[in-house]
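User: Working on a comparison across species. This one is beta-galactosidase from Citrobacter koseri. Can you predict its structure so I can line it up against the others?
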Amino acid sequence: PLWYTLCDRYGLYVVDEANIETHGMVPMNRLSDDPVWLPAMSQRVTRMVQRDRNHPSIIIWSLGNESGHGANHDALYRWIKSEDPSRPVQYEGGGANTAATDIICPMYARVDQDQPFPAVPKWSIKKWLSMPGEQRPLILCEYAHAMGNSLGGYAKYWQAFRQ
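Assistant: Here's the predicted structure for beta-galactosidase from Citrobacter koseri:
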């Protein structure tokens, strides 16, 4: 696609994200943990990697967005790493407790407060950064969500970033 060619030319970095999202499914990992859905998810990931792997602007592969975490993500992570071990793989639903991501990239993680969800807990940013043996980088894929006319808590994030 032209977009990736332009990114290559102008030096923009790209996180190439598979078209996988199960937002609204309850539980969110219902499809990502169901082997019936592995072929559909696999097709989206393999086509993305095979189509885009020659673009130097793509620095990270992403397994999708907001689709819980399940065995299908683990299988897709292993496939990408076997196909292209040179790039990291990220998945925001992977959390810190899974091997489906090379980058911890939580969505709306709080600076000081843990969110101990049963399946995939979201630890506070400060806790993630201080976990013993954790060497993966932490990149917030989304933070400081705002509705209405107030952002709230933005300064707290930037204080933590600077530390």
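For your comparison, note: Residues 126 and 163 are 10 Å apart (CA to CA).

User: Helpful, thanks.
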